[in-house]
Amino acid sequence: MAGRRVxxxxxxxxxxxxxxxxxxQRQAFEEIIHQYxxxxxxxxxxxxxxxxxxxxxxxxxxxxxxxxxxEGGRCDSLQQEMAQMRIKHQEELTELHKKRGELxxxxxxLNNQIQHKDKEIQSNEAKMLEYQQEMSHLEGECxxxxxxxxxxxxxxxxxxxxxxxxxxxxNALEEKLRKTTDDNQELVTRWMAEKAxxxxxxxxxxxxxxxxxxxxxxxxLADAAKEPLxxxxxxxxxxxxxxxxKGTGETSPSRQPSRTPRRRRSVNSFGTSPEAAEAPSMxxxxxxxxxxxxxxxxxxxxxxxVRFSPGSRMLATGGMDRRVKLWxxxxxxxxxxxxxxxxxxxxTSIEFDSAGSCLxxxxxxxxxxxWTVDDLRLRHTLTGHSGKVLSARFLLDNxxxxxxxxxxxxxxxxxxxKVCMKTVFAGSSCNDIVCTEQCVMxxxxxxxxxxxxxxxxxxxxxxxxxxxxxxxxxxxxxxxLLACSRDDLVKIIDLRSNAVRQTFSAQGFKCGSDxxxxxxxxxxxxxxxxxxxxxxxxxxxxxGKLDKTLDKGHSSAINSVSWSPSGAYVASVEKGSKAVLWxxx
Length: 585
Description:
The protein is built from 5 helices and 28 strands. The protein has helices spanning 2-66, 72-226, 233-246, 256-270, 274-282, and strands at 291-297, 303-308, 314-319, 324-330, 333-340, 347-352, 358-363, 367-372, 377-383, 389-394, 400-405, 409-414, 419-425, 430-435, 439-444, 448-453, 458-464, 469-474, 480-485, 489-494, 499-504, 519-520, 526-530, 536-540, 546-550, 558-563, 570-574, 578-583. The strands form 7 sheets. A 4-stranded antiparallel beta sheet has the order 1-28-27-26, with no helix packed on it.
């Protein structure tokens, strides 16, 4: 139907163009044709007049022949008139022939123009046909595009409906998650309360049992003292020696006193908690490492951070491969335990909470993340910085976090509400952070160490070093601050006097990057730092001298060092892919 309609339209258009051409051209030649017809009529009339004159001439000649004498004069006058009329008619005929020739030439020229116009019309008709075909092709493409557009609109509407449905589902699931989290928090609170009650009950029962045993023991001792038994010399010597060993003044001769110390030892062991039993192992004397126990490939690429867990049984490393890896330290070897994923860029720093149950990592993707160590699950993602997060630390309550970034800001985060509580503009890129209960200390690119009051969000004081600050660490008493800078110096700052108390340097020691991390030993008596040449340097804080240089383990610059809380191991990582576990064993 569309093809027929297009065909009728162009035919009608051609007919109208032809009629218009006829009207225009006929109007131009209409006067010429009219004059030409008049000339033809006049020519025919002249021919008639000529015939009539010829007839009159013959008649006059005949009459002259009949009466030559009578009408001789009249004939001469008639001949003169006829001669004049003939000349006049001849001139008119000549003029008419001339106009006829001119008109004929005009007609020829107009015919040529008509032929030229006809050719132009044919050419235009051919172009019109091509244009019509092109229009038909374009109309077909336009129809296809309309169909495609309609399909895309339908698909877009379907996707929009699906997105709306998914958004509704997501909101419902988020609400459900929130309720579940609240319920879980309530259950945990109740469970903790019940556990506390059970612990109180158990402690009460233990106390009752202890009192009952003590009463029973006192009763047995009283009965044994009242009972008159013969004393053998050997028994007397035995009882006296045992009493002397225990430091008691009891000299009653019986076998019961020999059982009394054993009962007392059983009572003490029953009342001792597992934490008290492990306390001696946690206060082990610090060992200065001398040997690389285990050298292993920790990551695919550069390793930026390393940290021991509070119990010293686990080691965590973070690298540019966007992963945090956990290693279990067993008999001087690091065995893989798990991998924490979720970061979108390289890891810059890591830290365990005080219980060792959560791990915090800062990343180059402008975020900090928290995982639970037991199930390796990502729990929190803290976003808000506009630059790389170079350091993040738990506060002492483990419920808040401080992060420092390349965007020259520090942010305080609340893990309960999962929001940023405060943002402080430091004025320079923050390379490392350490925290006390109410103070945050930050090391910056502008060579300054700044001390912040968390409550007032203001700088309490600041201390300028001679180079860009790369690392900070606190001793166990939190009275001394260890700082490493790009001037290849490691300094101890006394926080009570706010002054540099001690400076360490060594021949060959060179800070390898703006993020080289150094560490105190657990008791604060030693300082360990990695150098750009791959050597590990250890200084004695008491003497201020270099204690050891360990250069057989790394093949590239050391990025970070961590000393285990037990004091038995030191771990270091490098710009290559290796990590090294050191000890004196």
